[in-house]
Write a structure and sequence with these properties.
With 299 residues, the protein is of the alpha+beta class. It is built from six helices and 18 strands. It comes from Nocardioides mesophilus.
Length: 299
């Protein structure tokens, strides 16, 4: 059996930049093992397996090369864009059902935007632990530039603020941070902790910030990710918690530059009483390829 697929680049205004995504159609009957095998065959940071439900809703499964995950940003935007391009989504606003629950999707101008509810927020991370996390990516204590927070809207990252110059020196971790999990979890209730670090540098002032980011996800088989919508959503929560966007606001993220896949992510966070209440991440999508792929027969 063969299934149709599309490949798109997400968070970019041109092909062969941004973050790659494979969207496999007609895969509702596939097993977890078959979805994982197809994801590994494509070799991207994520692949999705959507099942359209109507003009304004669909369900999808999202896989990294290592496992199924409940939510991710660029797969959400890329999948919605592909379904709309195929005529399977007709409304300007839709709902994606995934492991983390319903995620709102909106089409406007030349962008797709997701809207997610904050789930995990803990911190600030103690300086000693933050320095250990920096050491994992080849940086030192002097590179830290503010309080680190644990935050996410379905996938939870450690958001480590550093000086912009330090971002260029960072390197992917050779291993996961299992030894840090207990101390991170002790900061507060954390349900969706991913083995992942979002290094970021901030410029500008509220209500509009410019961010340079690099994201490392060793535990999911992604040494470095060129554009990470889920991290961008959680970053909005961290920016509110740090007081940089205490009343909410917008932030534009530049990511993937060091990988040769420059990406632009447009974040927007709503806040009340010093806490994020809703996180939005938008970007452009470009189509790259379509075809058919053989479905593996697995026992």
């Amino acid at each position: 059996m063969h299934l149709a697929y599309d490949v798109v680049d997400v968070f970019t205004d041109r092909p062969f930049a941004g973050n790659q995504l494979a969207v496999v159609h007609g895969a509702g009957g596939l097993s977890t093992e078959q979805c994982l095998a197809l994801t590994r065959e494509f070799g991207y940071s994520e692949s999705t397996f959507p099942v359209p439900g109507g003009a304004a809703d669909y369900a999808t499964r999202i896989f990294t090369p290592e496992a199924e995950i409940p939510f991710a940003g660029h797969p959400t935007l890329g999948t919605a864009w592909v379904l709309r391009d195929r005529g399977e989504l007709e409304a300007d606003e839709a709902v994606q059902q995934c492991g983390a629950g319903p995620v709102g999707v909106r089409f406007w101008a030349d962008r797709v935007e997701l809207s997610a509810t904050p789930r995990d927020l803990a911190g600030p991370v103690g300086r000693e632990l933050a320095v250990e996390l920096l050491a994992d990516v080849g940086l030192g204590a002097d590179d830290l530039d503010g309080d680190a927070w644990v935050a996410g809207c379905g996938l939870t990252f450690v958001h480590l603020p550093v000086r912009d110059e330090a971002l260029r020196r960072a390197r992917p971790s050779a291993s996961g941070f299992e030894r840090h999990v207990d101390r991170l979890s002790a900061l507060g209730e954390v349900r969706d902790l991913l083995d992942a670090v979002n290094l970021y540098a901030v410029a500008g002032e509220a209500p509009g910030l410019q961010v340079h980011s690099r994201v490392f996800v060793p535990g999911a088989g992604v040494p470095e990710d060129p554009a990470t919508g889920s991290a961008a959503a959680g970053l909005g929560m961290a920016l509110v918690a740090r007081g940089l966007l205490g009343d909410g606001g917008r932030y534009t993220i530049r990511q993937g530059v060091e990988m040769g896949r420059p990406s632009t992510l447009h974040g927007r966070v709503e806040a009340a009483d010093g806490l994020a209440t809703r996180c939005h991440v938008a970007g452009q999508v470009r189509h790259v390829a379509r075809g058919e792929i053989l479905v593996p027969e697995l026992s």
